[in-house]
Amino acid sequence: MNTVYTYITRLSDLVPEVPSDSILSRTVYNDDRVKVVLFGFAAGQELSEHTASQPAILHFLEGEAHLTLGEDSMEARAGTWVHMPPQLPHSIVAKTPVVMLLLLLKDR
To answer: Residues 75, 67: contact at Cβ < 8 Å?
Structure first.
């Protein structure tokens, strides 16, 4: 069998230590259909409002954050999962150290 796959036992291990005063990002997978980026946020760090040109999925693995999606504000914690359409303004503010997975879905 020559099936090619990517296997990661524990995603959060790829961010061994969340930086104390910054945001760390690491691309863990990228092909013609999806780009997967793992983020580590220090408490208090922010991704200011922005948009993405493609659909995206946010999956919070660890920590707590304040999340804004369009005009809606909500809390995100370990287990929170969000699908966003293209061009949706969004922002994230980490309340505690946060580990988050971003999946950018590409057009074929």
So the answer is: yes
Q: What is the mean pLDDT of residues 53-71?
A: 97
- The angle subtended at Cα 19 by Cα 65 and Cα 7, nearest 5°, is 80
Mean pLDDT of 28-57: 95
- Beta partners for residue 75, in sequence order: 66
Q: Which residue has the tokens 């990002």?
A: 25
At residue 51, the pLDDT reads: 96
CB atoms within 10 A of CB 102: 20
Contact 83, 105 (CB under 8 A): no
Contact of 9 with 3, CB cutoff 8 Å:
no
pLDDT at 20 (0 to 100): 83
pTM score of the predicted model: 0.90
Tokens at residue 98, please?
Answer: 């946060």
| Domains recognised in the chain with CATH numbers | 11-105 (2.60.120.10)
